Amino acid sequence: MKGNILVGQSGGPTAVINSSLAGVFKTAMERGYNQVYGMRYGIQGFLDEQYICLSDYIKNEMDLELLKRTPSAFLGTCRYKLPEIHEDRAIYERIFELLEKLDIEVFVYIGGNDSMDTIRKLFDYSLLTGARQKFVGCPKTIDNDLAITDHTPGFGSAAKYIATSTKEVIYDANGFSYKKKNVTIIEIMGRNAGWLTGASALCKGEDCDGPDLIYLPEVAFEPETFIGKLRNLLEVKDTIVAVVSEGIRTAEGKYICEFTSGSETKDAFGHIQMTGTAAYLADLVHKELGCKARAVELSTLQRAAAHLASKIDVDEAFNVGGATVKAADEGSSGVMVVIDRVSDDPYQSATGVYDVHRIANGEKLVPRKWINAEGDYVTEEFLDYVRPLIQGQYNPMMVDGLPRHLNMHLKNYDWARTPIHQ
Predict the structure, then answer these.
(1) Residue 385: CB partners within 8 Å, gap ≥ 6?
(2) Fewest CB within a 10 Å sphere: which of 88, 161, 277, 417?
(3) How many distinct structural domains can be found in the chain?
């Protein structure tokens, strides 16, 4: 019999991160692995010997389906930066001692850029020591900024939620426009990459004009130019909706959120806390133009809205989770599973593997040609890229009018006896 698999989740969660976890578990069982252990709170929790047996929680197909529909990170997540090997060899010795203790053959980490950095370091240490474990990265991030892969699981569902919410905000704003000038600024996640913000344009169609302005971090943002465009727009219409990335910054490289009194806290990877971009701009609009202005920050809802998950996204996340186990089972290590787009019409994709050294700490930005010349909207080419990823619904399993999820703290609950309405 084969040994065991260890899987962890790291970084910001997504609406489909647990679908990848379900894919890892199911494929591991099908391929004859003895047990799948889950790290509690990623590699940081594992260092404190915090882990569970997933088979204690996933006992049947119903549990697996509930897990695929459960938001947040079922195992818990972390933002923990492993030191370079030469900086603290002892921490690696500790990790590999624990891997041997649990008879781990495969280490799977579900995450984004920083998580792939963890895979890179563990794989490099295994080469130095001749360790037997395989290390494979499973992509995850709503930001869609991982290199090499066509797109990342989590992005499609977040894009679907953002486009839907933007459309609803536009309708709401229009409902209050009678003889009143008003500006609404929607702030979308995205530190350096504007994939999510650009997705707001998907709501433009026969029944909605879409946002008036869209600003991505890939193009320098000047508040004075922004105010000038709003002034001109308000001469011809009463309601303006602008969508901005939280990470927009000036030509000098200063984030707009740094003009606020927001937090200066940084995470383990040196990222500053992004907050207040829309609020700052709304206040500026009110001062400069004298009209009503409000800020809408979608915040964590963008990554937690499993009730509006894209079926394409859920299915791909599940397949990618399975592909990580297959890759390791067939001898690969030091790689990340990638998604290759086979065709757009009909949309089809396939999985492959790629050297994690080419992916870790990289960043895929929106191509400049996919942003209009003025830098205040995205092109049709951008929309053609995103639109297939939001297709289809993965309906929640409803109980008493609300979605049912798999809860780690209720592992003895008999879900099979609960009336499920799909």
Answers:
(1) 370
(2) 417
(3) 2
Q: Which of 114, 143, 145, 376 is catalytic?
A: 143
Task: Say which CATH number the domain at 21 has.
Answer: 3.40.50.450
Task: Output the pLDDT for position 176.
Answer: 76
Query: 155-172 burial, b for 16+ CB within 10 Å, e for fewer?
Result: bbbbbbbbbbbbbebbee
Instruction: Provide the pLDDT confidence category of residue 180 given band limits of 50, 70 and 90.
Output: confident
- In 364-413, the DSSP E strands lie at 398-399, 402-403
What CA dihedral angle connects 383, 384, 389 and 390, to 10 degrees? 50
* pTM of the predicted structure, to 2 decimals: 0.94
CA dihedral sign, ordered 145, 149, 150, 152: negative
E-only strand ranges, 192-260 = 213-215, 239-245
Strands 398-399 and 402-403: antiparallel
Task: Judge whether 143 counts as a catalytic residue.
Answer: yes
3-state secondary structure of 51: strand
Q: Copy the structure tokens of residue 377.
A: 């909207």
Residue written as tokens 């130095």?
128
- The pLDDT score that the predictor gives to residue 409 is 75
Q: What residue type is assigned to position 130 of the chain?
A: G
Asked if residues 60 and 112 have their Cβ atoms less than 8 Å apart, the reply is: no
